[in-house]
TrEMBL record:
The keyword Secreted does not apply. GO terms for cellular component: cytoplasm. GO terms for molecular function: GTPase activator activity. PANTHER family: RHO GTPASE ACTIVATING PROTEIN 18,19-RELATED, RHO GTPASE-ACTIVATING PROTEIN 19. Keywords: GTPase activation. It comes from Scyliorhinus torazame (Cloudy catshark). The keyword Thylakoid does not apply. One of its GO terms (biological process) is regulation of small GTPase mediated signal transduction. SUPFAM superfamilies: GTPase activation domain, GAP (SSF48350). Signal peptide: none annotated. Gene3D superfamilies: Rho GTPase activation protein. The lineage of its organism: Eukaryota, Metazoa, Chordata, Craniata, Vertebrata. This is Rho-GAP domain-containing protein. Residues 1-102 form the Rho-GAP domain.
């Protein structure tokens, strides 16, 4: 989920690969959980779209909602404190990219289309 920068020395996040990984993970969620998460992220995304009026950027919303959305079940507050920045950044990423996350990756959609059309895929990734 990381690639090297243009100089080839420092690893940087590959957003497209991260989105693809989340798309695949979200397909594994039970439908009720996936639907609830989609509705919540849609609401937060729509709120962040009006940040010029409400001052609620995706990161500000993540600060408020991250502990409630992504809190690991058996983790104490003191244990989470060291990772709160990662948790907030991850939640902000989910909010910013929520409109893409609940679709299957393009290559899976294409394979499904070909399967239902009776064709064989030319390239499998």
């Amino acid at each position: 989920l990381m690639v090297f920068d243009k100089k080839g020395k420092k690893p940087v996040p590959d957003k497209e690969r991260q989105i693809e990984a989340l798309q695949l993970l979200f397909l594994l969620l039970p439908s009720a959980n996936r639907n609830l998460l989609k509705l919540l992220l849609d609401l937060l995304y729509q709120t962040a779209k009006h940040q010029d009026r409400n001052k609620m950027t995706a990161y500000n919303l993540a600060l408020m909602f991250a502990p409630h959305i992504l809190w690991p079940r058996n983790l104490m507050a003191a244990d989470l404190q060291g990772n709160i920045t990662k948790l907030n950044n991850g939640t902000a990423f989910l909010i910013k990219h929520s409109q893409k996350l609940f679709r299957a990756p393009a290559y899976i959609r294409e394979l499904a289309r070909l399967q239902f059309a009776g064709s064989k895929p030319s390239v499998i990734r």
